[in-house]
Amino acid sequence: MGSQTPPQRPGIPTTTTTTTPTLIKWVLDTRPLWPEAKQTKDLSSAAARALALLTPDERSGVLRYYHVKDAKLALGSALLKRLAIVRCAGVPWQDTLPGRDARTHKPVFRVPRSRDGPAAITPASASETAADRGGEEGAGGSGYDDDEDDYTEPLLFNVSHQAGLVVLLALSAPPSRTTAIGVDIVCPSERRTRDREMISREGWPRYVAMHEDVFSPGEAARLRALEWTLQLPLARTGAGSVTHAGASAGADTGESKGQDRTDVMLAHFYALWCLREGYVKMTGDALLAPWLRDLDMRNVAPPPRPPPPPPPPPPASTVTSVNAPATATATATTVADGATPPGLEIWLRGERVCDADVRLEWLLGDEYMVCTAVRWGHRDSSDNGNGTDGGGMAADEAEAEAVMMASPFVRLDVEQVLAEAEAAADGSAWA
Length: 431
What we know:
There is one protein chain. The protein is of the alpha+beta class. The chain folds into two domains: 22-175 and 411-430, CATH 3.90.470.20; 188-304 and 339-375, CATH 3.90.470. Helices cover 29% and strands 17% of the residues. Residues 1-16, 115-146, 232-258, 316-338 and 380-391 have low confidence and may be disordered. The protein has eleven helices and 17 strands. It is an enzyme of class 2 (transferase).
């Protein structure tokens, strides 16, 4: 029973348990949810249906937040993580509670490996791995402990949330034990006014200096240099691309479209922040990593501005691609190009990192910026950066990974999420 896959639900394509890696990119907007809840305690009744799907400890974790907006983010995060486990591991809802990684202390989902090799995914075995439960974020890396040969992970998952949005990145059937994923979201509009006021009052160099301890020396220097490089005339380098002397090429910074220099500098700052967070979360070390200042992102630029959104469609599917025509579903979206900063290089302790795919893109128009980072686990230091490596990774494998990375985020409807979760909880999904 545990290895079966739930039937497809309208609007949310089902991910089956398979040996082929599949990347899931979901977004849930909690801002319009449960509007009658003015305080966190109001969620007990307003979001009773969603809270009923959680354990008592999970519910307490959600309801401990002072601000209702934060409680809604925690609730959405819990729902998305467990739904991803249902999809990728093919287990009932009650067996989807993550355990803790021994190294990072972040939630992971592991199942005992059968004596014959493949994972034995059953409701009982899944429950046994959840002895040490809880946590708000999904762990990016595998992070196996000393008993790693006894367990396997049918999926990796990572969650990020800010300003009402929850994003989840998950990878089913990770191809290697060194495979790792990370995701981070920032909302420039949430802090732009405050940041602009500070820059106007104290200057751009002071603004950079306030955050300098989380950047590499080279990153901080390049940020400071924006104040004078962006004063130079813009030079077109190709369709949808502008560059400044000494600045990153290949991305439309927006200055030619009416943004002032402060907004352009801040866009570079937010892009660097998001890229670093996504990469660090992929490693599983988070902000405790001793090498944070040795991580150097080069040629960083904000992604090209997205095109205007299409006109509102007639009611159809409840789940649509965020940046594609609303009649498209997750299986019919057009792969978006140009989101990754052209020429982006990642250096660590003086050596170039070539085993990670890192992508930066806008979400919901240009309201949010999201970084997705995946270390597939089959590349080595001889990787030439274009998707092939010295180990002879097949071109079609690299192409499939590139397509998955470029696929747009899929916006989920909470009613659809709850319906599928309830079906997985009461067993009707496996009937």
